[in-house]
From TrEMBL:
The keyword Protein transport belongs to this UniProt entry's keyword annotation: no
Listed GO MF terms: transmembrane transporter activity
Coiled coil: none
Organism (species): Companilactobacillus kimchiensis
Keyword annotations of the record: Membrane, Transmembrane, Transmembrane helix
A Pfam family annotated for this UniProt entry: ECF_trnsprt
Transmembrane segment boundaries: 42-67, 79-100, 112-131, 151-168
Protein name, UniProt field: Uncharacterized protein
Length: 178
């Protein structure tokens, strides 16, 4: 709980708002660079969300991710339209990335656990439920093909998240927003 309190205890600065806006824009752009079908998309927006969690903690990352989801659906609507369940998933993802990455040493193990939590709770659990609710396709029929995609995503997202965060942790960008 102390991580949550420390991430929202300060008044947000203009510099933080600027960096958060940049990462929100990055997340929106990266979300449109995904490929695959509506139910089996592979993308890179997790990098921006991970950076939000790493720099700003669970509370601010969750709010920023919700803002990104809402703005994305207004400015660049997807074929499925807006569904509040995916906004809830964005909130949960921001909280998980923030709890797992904010003020913690960057390790491959921490990156793996972070991506595993996102994969199991958000991508496989919640998002499959939202797709089921929107399409009326039976949950098991959606879940089985998504499991293979999520297993692949777990590997590449862990690797990419670790590489990006490790590079940032060892660069001049490690203090942004802190």
């Amino acid at each position: 709980m102390s991580i949550m309190n420390s991430s929202r205890s300060k008044v947000i600065s203009v510099q933080e708002v600027t960096w958060m806006a940049l990462l929100i824009a990055m997340q929106m752009v990266l979300s449109k660079l995904s490929f695959g079908s509506n139910t089996l998309q592979v993308g890179f927006s997790f990098i921006a969300i991970g950076l939000l969690g790493y720099y700003f903690g669970p509370f601010k990352a969750a709010i920023a991710n919700v803002i990104a989801d809402v703005i994305s659906n207004v400015v660049m609507p997807s074929a499925g339209g807006f569904f509040i369940g995916f906004t809830f998933s964005a909130l949960i993802a921001g909280v998980i990335y923030g709890f797992m990455l904010y003020n913690h040493k960057v390790t491959i193990w921490r990156s793996f656990l972070t991506v595993l939590l996102i994969t199991v709770v958000v991508n496989t659990g919640l998002n499959t439920l939202w797709i089921h609710m929107m399409t009326n396709v039976p949950y098991p029929a959606l879940l089985i093909p998504r499991l293979a995609k999520e297993a692949f995503s777990l590997v590449y997202q862990t690797g990419l998240l670790y590489i990006v965060l490790h590079w940032i942790d060892n660069s001049k960008f490690s203090k942004i927003g802190r």
